[in-house]
Amino acid sequence: MIESDTDGDVCLLTFDRPDRRNALTPAALDDLESAVDGADAPVVLLRGAGSAFCAGADLDAVVDLPDREAAEAFARRGQRVARTVAESGSVVVAGVDGAARGGGVELALACDVRVATPAGTFAESGAAIGLLGAWGGTVRLPEVVGLGDAMDVALSGRVLDADEANRMGLVSRVVDDPRAVAEEIAANDPAALRAIKERLRDDGDRADRERREAEAFADLHADFER
To answer: Which Pfam families match (predicted)?
Structure first.
């Protein structure tokens, strides 16, 4: 269900189950993890086939979870995949064209850059069916948009259009073609991209972060073309 295609410096990973709005089964989560791990390009663009980005977890798979232990394992599986996205050596761009719901939003939150087309929409819809976003959603959403907006989005389950998602900071741009954003990033130096991602994601003590920033600058400077 995950189609992979590398074009130059961009690896295109496509959720390819358009008849189910690209909803993810446990096997599809594993496929996504393998695809992200195996990506050999400075930039990965995550996108959906058809009219949706990703509807999140396949509800048939959720209904079939037999007990509490299985449900917790399923949540941890999604969290692991989201961490794989966040910790990838590539810069991962979410290109949301169409609906992102539940786990689809959570996987986008794990990406380094999120952009949407004018057709992009977002909702954390778990509360409506008695669940919550458990692929890191309750952790990453307030980190990205702030606690107040995260409470509003997750508790109401309302649908955000691309412009509101942009104003909220859920996406950084509204664009006609997310691939153009991926290619814009990929035009830069790969080593610098990796170092910038690592430094921006560093959540350690401020003094330690500044020390590592200086070390990263020195490492890059060693190969700097004068």
So the answer is: ECH_1
